[in-house]
Design brief:
434 Repressor (Amino-terminal Domain), Rossmann fold, 331 residues, 6-stranded parallel β-sheet, alpha/beta
């Protein structure tokens, strides 16, 4: 630190203020100190900084399959929000769907000196309870809302309701559902809302068809759905499965949306460029990331008067893959 102070022409106390990201340093002086740090390869001691500031400047994220669209987008949004709050992010992936595996990931991150951890739960664990280290600030994203921990999630029920209501309003007699895997919280909530919306409307409830979130599973399920002559509308629980479904319908000689309307969920970047463009539900992951970091900071800084649960409302995006059923045809 003394070498940095000498090169920048400032006191060691000023270097300390810059290293700890204090605000009482003017921009020109801060720039000189940062340049000297870079030239000398100086790296602040995180343990010493924690003694001064009471924090390490890092947040942890524990998540299952980061290849899944929702998990990947949530992780990226948390990283962006953390960076805006001057925190880095340490990530720990989990393969086994067990509380023990989650606790192990938490212990690993705690050894890396993080100030708080976001658990992107997404998949059901082997126990309905969730016991995490009591000393660590925790936020659960996309998980079981029955946990005691602060949580952030999309209003999955609202999203499903908006899709099904849209399809019924077009004149379809009922709506089939290509659901995600049964061990997914999001898939379960979307399926429950699909069934509830049909029941409330007095519409028949077709049997559930399951996929695994992949376009391949949507294609395979779509081949079976295409053989059902009374199917005129399908709500897929995510856009990838909807893509596979649309291909299967096309190969089976059933056009979208003339013969079968198809809607998805997520509004991935490719959804607007499919043929036809896909009706879907847009989820704002940036807002989820900001909520996760804000709830963690509330705990880290000792604020207890704010809301502990935050639901982000998704928005229906109507495109050309949905339309009224053929006149005189099955509806």
């Amino acid at each position: 630190m003394a070498d940095v102070a000498t090169m920048a022409g400032v006191s060691s106390q000023t270097v300390s203020r810059v290293a700890n990201n204090r605000e009482n340093v003017d921009a020109a002086t801060r720039e000189k100190v940062l340049s000297a740090m870079q030239a000398l390869g100086y790296r602040p001691n995180t343990a010493a900084r924690a003694l001064v500031t009471g924090r390490f400047g890092a947040l942890g994220v524990v998540s299952f399959d980061v290849g899944a669209h929702g998990n990947a987008r949530t992780l990226g949004a948390i990283a962006d929000a953390a960076r805006e709050a001057d925190f880095s992010v340490n990530f720990m992936g989990v393969r086994a769907q067990t509380e023990a595996a989650v606790r192990h990931a938490f212990q690993h991150l705690m050894l890396q000196s993080v100030d708080g951890i976001v658990l992107v739960e997404s998949q059901m664990l082997d126990t309905p309870s969730l016991r995490l280290p009591p000393s660590m600030p925790v936020v659960v994203a996309d998980g079981d809302t029955g946990h005691e921990y602060p949580n952030v999630d999309f209003d999955q029920a609202h999203g499903s309701h908006s899709v099904v209501s849209h399809l019924l309003s077009l004149g379809h007699r009922t709506v089939w559902h290509l659901a995600g895997p049964p061990d997914s919280f999001a898939a379960r909530r979307r399926a429950e809302a699909w069934q509830r919306t049909l029941t409330d409307a007095g519409a028949p409830v077709p049997p559930l068809v399951y996929g695994d979130w992949s376009a391949r599973s949507g294609y395979r399920a779509g081949l079976d759905i295409a053989r059902q002559p009374d199917v005129t509308a399908v709500f897929a629980a995510n856009d990838q499965m909807a893509m596979g479904l649309m291909r299967a319908l096309h190969e089976s000689g059933r056009s979208v949306p003339e013969d079968v309307s198809v809607a998805g969920f997520d509004d991935i970047a490719e959804a607007a460029y499919l043929h036809p463009p896909l009706t879907t539900v847009h989820q704002d992951f940036e807002v989820v990331g900001k909520h996760c970091v804000a709830l963690l900071l509330d705990q880290i800084e000792g604020r207890t008067d704010g809301p502990r649960r935050r639901a982000v409302e998704p928005v229906l995006v109507v495109r050309s893959s949905t339309a009224p059923p053929r006149p005189g045809g099955l509806a």
